[in-house]
Design goal:
The complex is a heterodimer of chains A (272) and B (169).
Chain A (H helix, E strand, L loop, with lengths): L14 H6 L2 E5 L3 H13 L3 E5 L17 H6 L3 H12 L4 E5 L7 H5 L3 E4 L4 H13 L4 E10 L5 E10 L14 H9 L11 H19 L10 E6 L4 E4 L3 H4 L25
Parallel strand pairs in A: 1-2, 1-4, 2-3, 4-5
Antiparallel strand pairs in A: 5-6, 6-7, 7-8
Helix pairs in contact in A: 2-4, 2-8
Chain B lengths: L2 E6 H11 L10 E11 L3 E11 L5 E2 L7 E2 L1 H14 L2 E7 L10 H10 L12 E6 L4 E6 L7 E2 L2 E5 L4 E4 L3
Parallel strand pairs in B: 1-3, 1-10, 6-7
Antiparallel strand pairs in B: 2-3, 2-6, 4-5, 7-8, 8-9, 10-11
The chains are: A alpha/beta (272), B alpha/beta (169).
């Protein structure tokens, strides 16, 4: 075991190797994804795929871990900031970056062992979960929201969900619903910048990383493949989502067709 | 080319449970796993297990020379699946011991006879044969009817916990 891992040796004799051989994708390197990148580097994850089409702006400095004022001046890519953060912790880490939408780099995601989704829109999360399921890749989704109440106060909330192929998906857990996606599409262009702050992102990212560690190098025997954690930033509390007790042991009905798996064109006859 | 076989833990456990059922006269049970595929950077191949189809009780032939001998009806039904669902077919059976299983001489001889026939219905998809043990698995894949089979390089068991198993060399 490496010296840097001594204090996490309870994760198992082989945990160093397990983390070292992992390939993890993080889609979205903003407030949530940057926290996750930093924590995975500290854990010792060996291979990263970082995907984000955006450059840092000054309004990101309130939450983007690793981002500096100099980066804003240079209009640095968010993926490059995360890559620098990772290499600063572990110079041997392999980091592939895509300064693009993940759909343009879908091939990179196919080989990943786990995909983290840290993107704002419901439609985007729906698409990313479908892509992960297509290649039987566990998908860990984080979502955060600051909502203005009728009395003018704000509530901070969010959730972390594990979408494990063969088990409950984000639709099963009610994290994604057709009406949410439709509502979002109807408001397209009118939403403006949604409120975001650093600490709820940190809480949600930490929960997400904990889920990943339990999958890869469990330190206990309570294996759980249906996970939905709901965060109430006002109380503040983290609770197990109410849907979970109904979903354990149930088969997901949203991803059942053979056509939902693999490259859609694979197996088609070559053109004459 | 590296071949990676991914299967969900729930599907794998369901298959093991089914293959452990006793048959009236066959010593062991067999079935078929259907697969879809993905190419990575036009080089590596992902084999993605989709479903499991056990051979029906009545499709076993009584023959004490074999642990399980299945008739043409079993193959016809499996090949029908491959044709209608556009999937690759992997024959699967279980060895009772723990550890990475190696195919027996009979496994190698018999699969070499029937796996190439799967290409009659799905010539553009790979097909193969899987051997399970009580806690592991190994598999060989045919990329064409004429090609020699090659071992699957790596298995990923998708579930909690995640598990990666190196293939036979």
């Amino acid at each position: 075991m490496k010296a840097r891992s001594v204090r996490q040796s309870f994760l198992g004799d082989n945990s160093d190797d397990a983390f070292q051989h992992l390939t993890i994708a993080i889609v979205g390197l903003g407030g949530g994804g940057s926290h996750i990148a930093q924590q995975l580097a500290h854990l010792g994850v060996g291979q990263f795929v970082l995907v984000d089409p955006e450059r840092i702006e000054e309004s990101n400095l309130n939450r983007l871990v690793g981002g500096t004022f100099a980066d804003v001046r240079e209009k640095e890519w968010k993926v490059e900031i995360a890559a620098r953060l990772i290499r600063g912790v572990d110079p041997d880490a392999s980091v592939a970056v895509a300064r693009d939408r993940w759909q343009q780099s879908a091939d990179l995601l196919k080989t990943c062992d786990i995909v983290f989704g840290c993107i704002d829109s419901f439609a985007g999360r729906d698409e990313l979960e479908k892509a992960a399921r297509r290649y039987l890749t566990p998908y860990i989704d984080i979502g955060m929201d600051v909502h203005e109440e009728k009395d003018g106060t704000y509530s901070v909330s969010g959730q972390v969900a594990l979408s494990m192929p063969g088990e409950a998906c984000l639709h099963c857990m009610n994290v994604l619903r057709p009406e949410l996606i439709a509502q979002e599409a109807a408001q397209y262009g009118a939403a403006g910048g949604r409120p975001q702050v650093v600490w709820p992102n940190g809480v949600l990212a930490s929960l997400a990383v904990g889920i990943m560690v339990q999958l890869v190098s469990p330190w206990h025997n309570h294996h759980n493949s249906v996970i939905l954690l709901e965060y109430d930033g006002n109380t503040p509390e983290v609770r197990v989502g109410s849907a979970v007790s109904f979903l354990r042991g149930k088969t997901c009905q949203h991803f059942v067709d053979a056509a939902d798996l693999g490259d859609p064109w694979h197996g088609q006859a070559p053109p004459p | 080319m590296k071949t990676i076989f991914r299967i969900t833990r729930s599907l794998l456990e369901g298959i093991r449970k089914d293959l452990r059922r006793r048959h009236v006269h066959a010593y062991e049970r067999v079935g078929f796993v259907t697969c879809r595929f993905g190419l990575v950077r036009w080089a590596d191949l992902l084999c993605l297990a989709h479903g499991y189809f056990p051979v029906a009780d009545e499709d076993y032939i009584e023959d004490r020379m074999f642990g399980a001998l299945i008739g043409s009806a079993a193959f016809r039904k499996a090949m029908q699946l491959a044709y209608t669902q556009n999937v690759g077919l992997f024959h699967i059976h279980l060895h009772g011991h723990p550890g990475v299983p190696t195919p027996s001489g009979i496994d190698i001889r018999e699969t070499a006879k029937f796996v190439p026939d799967f290409f009659h219905v799905r010539p553009n998809l790979p097909h193969g044969a899987i051997v399970l043990s009580s806690d592991s698995l190994s598999a060989r894949i045919w990329l064409s009817a004429a090609a020699k089979p090659k071992p699957i390089d790596q298995f990923s068991i998708i579930g909690a916990p995640l598990m990666t198993i190196a293939g036979l060399r």
